[in-house]
Amino acid sequence: MSRICEVCGKRPISGNKVSHSLRHTRRVWAPNLQRVHAIVDGKKKWIRSCTRCIKSNKVVKAA
Questions:
Q1: 31 FRET partner, CA 20 to 30 A, in 15, 19, 49, 54?
Q2: DSSP 59
């Protein structure tokens, strides 16, 4: 499964983890995705959405 929000397209980003001694190692920040029962095009569907889209009401939840 891909770690991509189906609403906004947010995906993992990469960068460096920097320790206290300033060593750099690669790491990945993944979005906080939740499986949500939502209404898409008038039909109920399971989607993977980030919590920011859920909180900002970009996702219409199915009852």
A1: 19
A2: S
